[in-house]
Input
Amino acid sequence: MANNFATVYYSDMKDSEIKAIIEDMKAAGCSGADTDRVMRMHEAGMDEEILICLRKCRCSMIEDLHERQKKIDHIDSLIRRTVKLA
Output
């Protein structure tokens, strides 16, 4: 019974928060496709899938971060080489 109450409460909480979640996703840089997907999942009651989608968005951002870090490291190397020549 308590578990059922928690599920109902969580679902009700999500109904009142989904717009804020979508706005926060946009502010975090999630794509429009991801925000649309989360909205559709919410409407279908697919709570666990929303969490999976959010984690995938995070992983994608981390991959982008690592790629940018590689580029920054390369620039740093070029700066060090150039300083040695000067």
